[in-house]
Structure formats: C-alpha cells, structure tokens
Fold each of these.
Amino acid sequence: PVLLFEEENMMTEKKPLSLYVHIPFCIKKCLYCDFLSFPLKSQTHNAENYVNQLCREIEYKNSQYSGEEYRIISVFLGGGTPSSIDACYIEKILCKLRNVFSFDKDAEITIEVNPGTVDEDKLTTYYKAGINRLSFGLQSACDEELKTLGRIHNYDTFEKNFALARRVGFTNINVDLMSAIPNQTVASWEWNLNQVIGLNPEHISAYSLIVEEGTPFYDMELKLPSEEDERAMYAMTGDKLLTAGYEQYEISNYGKPGFECKHNIVYWKRGDYLGFGLSAASLVGNLRISNVTSMEDYLLGRYEDTETKELLSLQEEMGEAMFLGLRMTEGVSEEAFVKRYGITITDQYPGVIEKYVRQGLLERRNGHIFLTKEGMNLANTVMCEFV
C-alpha cells in the first residue's frame, strides 16, 4: 500500500499531456471532407507500414519532448476513419503508447468510428485494448441526407453498430451530427436531433457544414439552408439538448454531466499535446510542431527532418488562449490568464472586452469572460479580435 501511494504521488507530480494519433485511411472520401485522408483500397499495402512508422514516431517524440515528465490524461485516435483498418493495428498502437508513456488510471481513450466499419469482434478488441470512449460519425439520421454527404452508411447500420457498442460494454459514446447540409430544413434537423436523443448517448457533437475549397462540394451547386434557418437550427439544438439533459460546454459540443470530452478541452485550454502521424499537430509549451504531409516521406521516416516547428510569441500565445477559450461556455478565467501571462485581459486588449459587452456579445461574470447566446452566433467576429 505504501508503494502504491508513492507511485500515485509520483504520477500527480508529472505534467498532464494528451496524445493524438492520425489514421489517414477511410473507405471512401466524403464529398465535404478536407482532412488529409486516402481511400483504404488504394493504400492497403501501406496500412501496416504506416502503423509501424507510427510506433517509431512515438518512440522518437517521447525522447525528443521528454515524455518521462508527463502523465497521459487522454488519447484520441482520429482520421480519416481509424475503424477502417484492422483492429490489431489499433491494438498495436495503444500497446506502444502504454509502453512509452505513463497513463493516468482514468485516462480518456477515444477512437473515431464510422458506421459500417465495425462489428462485434472489432469493438470487443477496442474495449479490451483499453479504449473507453467511442465517437460515431453519424452526421445525419436521414438516409437521403447521408447520400447527399457521400457517406457509406445508412441510419439502420448506425443503430445496429450503436447497439453492438452498448452490448460490448461501452458506456461513453459520442455521436457526431451535421447541420446546415444541402436540402436540410429546420424540421428535418429537429427530427435528426430527436432520433439521436432517443438513443441516449453520453455526448453529442452538433456542428454546421462548412464548404471548404478543394472538396467536391466546393464545385457543386448546393441548395444550402438560409443563414436565418441555420441560426434557428443552432438555437433549437441548445434548447432540445438541454431539455434532454445535455449541457452545452463548447460552441458545438454537448455532454451529460461528467461526460465532457477531456481531450478536446485540452485543445481549447491550450494544454500540452503530442500528435503522431501524417499532418498531426503538437503543442508543447510555446512550441508548435506540424508533421509532414507526404505519405512517401512519412513511410521513409523523414518526419524528423520535415516536421515544421514554430516558437510562438507571448502575444500569439495570449491570442490563442482567448480565441480558443471563448469557444467554451465557461469562457476564459481572468485569474488564470494573469497567472499564466503576467498581464490582465483588459490591459492586453484595451477596449475590446468592453466593446463586445456593450454589444451584448460578451459577458463578464464571476471572474470569467464568455460569449453570450447572441455572441455564439457571431463567435468568429468576436474571436478574430484576438488573433
């Protein structure tokens, strides 16, 4: 018992760190997707090589950025579609991470799952490997809307996969929903919300479509909802989910009490994190690292020579703290800001806070500065003041 107590003390003395692992493979690229990913069929021979190189990069980054000083509080396997590759590869990655880093007992370990890419065996392997949170990329409960987005699944497939996940033992599940997609109405969005609420997941991410340059959607004539309808969808989301027991803790994220996504909160609060894999980003103190984007270079182990490093200025750090912190409904702690940066928010941004408080877009209360409901609708306008 004494030894265990000493080990726990040693762990709490270590700094918290989060890990992101990018799996760039998917079954098929969706029409709106601008993430760095490749159809698995054209990359099958690379999947094993990629995972092997990931394991080497994990060793490399641990030695480069003093992994021994940290304790892991969260891991997020994203993509692409991590569930598109064999489960044994996911198992191998997690085994390597546990061998290299010290994990908190209650570390949150999430994998993004696309409906139609998992079965009971695969989900069981995830569960036994220590994954304790699933993030289902549903996007819509309407089959016609799923076809419009270019998704590979229908709603029935998602429901069956969701039920399988519960049967296997997962008690922390997120469901992604996308609003303001082509031909969607306020009424069909409400129906989407009702369908997902009925399944009672622990967390729902509800965000609106952004048509990005370079995607097939960008070159298509799309019938998108009006700005007025998009705002109505957003307002409805908050109201319906609150009634159903979900608290909004970030612009696009809603969780039951105690089920907020620990990993994403690290990003919004500018905690330390390491990213592994193609194009993955890391932030250690004021050092930002961006990984190579070429699969060929990555598979050859050239990430050591081709990663981009940027030392952020104090001004840039403070700007990010405000820009990201205001995404959260609790906002930015004025006391924490002074403690970390040695200057008050008011002195650093004279007149800015007061201007948006007068306009009803920001509120200042209990030592925090946060967006109002109206401010959430105009978040980019407000947050751009700090970049």
Amino acid sequence: MIAPATGIKQTFYNSFASFLADSGFGVICYDNRGIGKSRKGSINDGNPSLITWGRQDMTAVLEKLKDLFPETTYHLVGHSAGGQLVGLMNNTKNLGSMFNFACSSGSIRNMGFLFKLQAYFFMNVFIPINNLLFGQTNSQWVGMGEPLPKTVATQWSQWCNGSGYVAMAFEKEIDKHAYDEIDIPSLWLHATDDSIANLANVKDMISVFPNLKSEIVTLEPRILGFKEIGHMKFFSSKNKKLWNYAVSFLNENLK
C-alpha cells in the first residue's frame, strides 16, 4: 500500500509502483478524498481532513488491498503524510511492516532559519488567506502539489506549528488512535537536502509511536551520486537505484 504525501496524486508514484510490482509485490496506489480522481464536486465535499484521510481513506484502501490479494502479508510505504497518519487507521493490526520516506513531524521549530521563515509564511499567512478567500488552499501556486481542502490545510498548519504532529490532537480532535499499539518493523529514510524531514523532525515523528521497531537511514545525495533527493525525488525514476532500499526492507519482512 503506497500512502501518498499531502496533496500528491497517486500518478506521482506510478513508476515506483511498477517497480514494486515487477519485484513481485501486489501494489495499490490511491488519491485521498479531495485530491486527484477522488475529488467529486467541490474540493471540500466528503469532509476531507488529515483525520479522515487516515481514519477512513487509508483504512478503506488497506481493506481493498486485502480483497485484491488475500491470504498474504500487507505492508505500507508511506511518503510524508502517508506514514504520519498510519496510527489513525482502524486496521493497523493487518500491517506487517512500514517503509517511510520523508516522513517526519514537519515541525517548524526544528527547521533551518531561512526555510523556517518560508514555512511560517506558508502555514500562517498563505493557508489562512487562501482558505478565507477561496475556501481551499491553492498550494499548487507555490509548487506544493494539488489544491488542498480547507480543513486539510488548516490541520496541517496547526500540527506543524504545534508541539507534536498528530499527537497534539490526541484527546481533542482525535479520540481514538493506534499509535501506541503499532509494534511492527519500520524503516525511515530521509535525505540531508530535505529541509522538512530533517533528522530532528524524523525522530520527533517516531516518538509518537512508543512501541514501534524503527531504524533511520540518512541519505547523502552527493555521496550516493545524485544531484538532489529532497522531500520528493526518492520516487523519481531518475533516482531508481534508491528503490532497492524499499524492496530489500519489504523482502526482509514478508513473514
């Protein structure tokens, strides 16, 4: 199950998904509600939020994967929000392992000074003004994927500004979750040229999973022979040799 980043369409992962399929895996990609092909009518129809993305959309996609490929083991590849929201799923007990790339708390306080200013403007000026004027956040105007439903963008801003991504909503917007129940093996990759998922923010996100078996791998683009990896380009076919990290980890955890 390939769980996408915030506002990123399923087609972005097509090459990576095909690589996994060619490596012997059954694969499913999807658009969260309000994004891509899952948008029906108004962008805000169907109550799209980070919480409904995790609790309802991700849960339903895993159930579909189980229907398509019964009597096997199931694993999640999370990109950014795709790994952050896994603890909101109602069926996490069916997951055997989790491979995450660029998955972190996204906490503004842990970012470098210049990027912190950009992130603060986006989260605290751009999002509120867009939501007020358009009823959605036009994140595509600043190269941040698809337009975002109003509540998705609002929660994203609140959680990145807060003391802990997702965790700050526990016992408030989130009454039930499975973050403290997940004890599967997990591998967390991030790149040194990713200003969002830096090491501090990756560790910050892992701390929300108190019983998770986790390992962090830090990718140095120049040492690995890449011009850049950043927050998105792990999934670029130009960086295809990085995909063996995922295949090796998944093969090790098939049981």
Amino acid sequence: GSLSVSILISKYIFHQDVRTLGSGNAGAANAARTLGPRVGALTLLGDFLKGIISMLLGSWLGGTTGLAIAGAACMIGHCFPIYFGFKGGKGILVSVAVLMTVEWIPACILLGIFIIVVALTRYVSLGSCIAAVCYPVTILVYSLITGDPCVWINVILSALIAVLILFMHRGNLVRLKNHTEKKLGQKA
C-alpha cells in the first residue's frame, strides 16, 4: 500500500513531488489536475491494481484472515506511506479495489453513488465523501439480504473505513463548506 504511483511518477519523470502541487494530495484527481490526464489515469490504474494485488496476495498467504489484514494494510499504507513520510493519498481507489475483491455488488452500488454525485456536482471529493457515508449502510443492507453471519463485523469495519476516508478528506470538506473546492476538470 505504501507504493504511491503518483509520487513515483512525479518524482522520477517530472522531478517534482505531486504533494507540493495543487491540493497537495497524492491521488489520481490531483495528479490529473496538476500533471495531466495521463498521469491521473496511470495513478487511477496503479492505485486500483495495488488494492487488488494486495488482496490476492493476502488471500493466498492467509485465507480470509489474510484478506482482511491485506485490505487494511493496503489502505493504511496508501494513506500513510512509510516510504514517503506518511503523506499519501486519501484511500478512495484502494478502498474500491478492496471492496470489489470482497463484495463486488456493494462496490458497484457505491461506485454508482459516487458517479451520480460527481456527475451532478462535479466535485470528486463530495462524491467520495457521500459514498463513504453510504458505505456502512450499503454493507448493512447487503449483509442482511444475503444472510451473512458476520453482518456486524462487516458494518463495523466498513464504518471504520468510512471514518478514515472522511478524516483524509477533512481539508476538502472545509473547502466545500467555504465554496473553494476545485471541480472536476478545473486546473489546480
């Protein structure tokens, strides 16, 4: 999780640090805004694959327990990368990849919520935060419908992930409140 695609590309190709540009975030949206759409797309793909690969390795090494540990470690490593001074991305793509690996139906529902909010408002951060708030509710409903015996563990874990995502977006939430947040497509 600590390998940050946007930081590696910005440092070794552009000789800059994406975390000093635009919003200061190492995620796909800031990479696209400050370094161009190709870098944004590579960051999106890299962060998503990072989550999938970590889940596959975790499952292979430790079954269900390894899967849970790998997902948590990848998300924490992405947000607080040990190789880059503990300042990384906000965890959205990694959390989507982790959830997509475990339960694809709730992942698609939350992705749909994100897309609708971004399409209506053009605020990626707002779409991310609303999807994060909907995450535990979606997991609760899905777990109850499917009869999952671990329903409360699923809800608690998804709530912790939602809190982490909201914490990582605290600056965006302030900018949204102050009407200074950049919209999708706006340059930094």
